[in-house]
Design goal:
Blueprint: H1 2-23, H2 27-84, H3 95-99, H4 106-128, H5 138-157, H6 163-181, H7 185-207, H8 225-243
Helix pairs in contact: 2-4, 4-7, 4-8, 5-6, 5-8, 6-8, 7-8
Length: about 250
C-alpha cells in the first residue's frame, strides 16, 4: 500500500508539471513571435512618419514661395513707382495710372525671381554647411529692406557730375548693406552672380526693344543697375533665410 501511494503521488506531480510547462510559453517562442511582428510594425511607422514629414516640408516650401513671390511683386511695383515718379513727394491724382503704366509682366517676373532667390539662399547655406547666424531676426530684415529701398531711391534722386560717381556711390552703399546685414561668403557670391545674370537679362530685353532706359551709359542700360540687383539679391536672400528658420528637415529616402 505505501508503494502504491508513492507511485500515485509521483504520477500526479508529473502530470501537474506537464500542465504548467504547457501553459507557460517559452522565452524562445516569445522572442520569435516578437521578432515576427517587429518588421511590419516598424516599416509601417517609418512610412507614416516619412509621409508626414514630406507633406510638412512640401507645405512649408509652398508657403515660403508664395510669401517671397508676393514680396517680390510688391517691391517691384513700389520701386518702379519711385523710378517713374522721381519728383513726387505726395500722392497726386494720377498716381494710380502711373502705378500701372509699366508692363504687366514686370511684377510677376520680379516675384518669380524673388521666390527663386529667396529659396536659393538657405539652400546654398545648407549645402555649404555654413548656416547663416548673423542678425537673424525680423527687425534686422526690415531694416535691410528699408536700406535697399533707400538705395533704389538714391539712384533716382541723387544728382552727380557723372554716372561713374553715382555708380561708385551705389556700389559702396550696396557693399555696406551686405556687410551690415549679411557678411557671409555665400551671400556675397550669390549677390554678385545675381547682379551679373540680371544685368545680362536686362541688356537682352532692352536690346530687343521690350523697354528702354533714359540716358543709358552702360551699353543699353544704366551703369548703376548691377548695384541695385546686388543689393536686391542680398535683401531677398535675408528674407528667404528668415522664412526658412524652423522648417522641418527634408526627408531622405533610404
Amino acid at each position: 500500500m505505501p508503494r502504491l501511494e508513492s507511485c500515485a503521488w509521483s504520477c500526479s506531480c508529473a502530470a501537474r508539471g506537464e500542465m504548467l510547462s504547457s501553459s507557460v510559453p517559452s522565452p524562445s517562442l516569445a522572442l520569435v513571435g516578437r521578432g515576427a511582428r517587429s518588421p511590419s510594425t516598424s516599416s509601417a511607422s517609418s512610412t507614416a512618419s516619412s509621409t508626414s514629414s514630406t507633406l510638412n516640408w512640401s507645405q512649408h516650401l509652398v508657403q515660403r514661395s508664395v510669401v517671397l513671390f508676393v514680396v517680390g511683386a510688391f517691391m517691384a511695383l513700389v520701386l518702379n513707382l519711385l523710378q517713374i515718379q522721381r519728383n513726387v513727394t505726395l500722392f497726386p491724382d494720377e498716381v494710380i495710372s502711373t502705378l500701372f503704366s509699366s508692363a504687366w509682366w514686370v511684377p510677376p517676373c520680379c516675384g518669380t525671381a524673388a521666390a527663386v532667390v529667396g529659396l536659393l539662399y538657405p539652400c546654398i547655406d545648407s549645402h555649404l554647411g555654413e548656416p547663416h547666424k548673423f542678425k537673424r531676426e525680423w527687425a534686422s530684415v526690415m531694416r535691410c529692406i528699408a536700406v535697399f529701398v533707400g538705395i533704389n531711391h538714391a539712384s533716382a534722386k541723387l544728382d552727380f557730375a557723372n554716372n561713374v560717381q553715382l555708380s561708385l556711390t551705389l556700389a559702396a552703399l550696396s557693399l555696406g548693406l551686405w556687410w551690415t546685414f549679411d557678411r557671409s561668403r555665400s551671400g556675397l557670391g550669390l549677390g554678385i552672380t545675381i547682379a551679373f545674370v540680371a544685368t545680362l537679362i536686362t541688356q537682352f530685353l532692352v536690346y530687343n526693344g521690350v523697354y528702354q532706359y533714359t540716358s543709358p551709359d552702360f551699353l543699353y542700360i544704366r551703369s548703376w543697375l548691377p548695384c541695385i540687383f546686388f543689393s536686391g539679391g542680398v535683401t531677398v536672400g535675408n528674407i528667404g533665410r528668415q522664412l526658412a528658420m524652423g522648417i522641418p528637415e527634408k526627408p531622405h529616402n533610404d
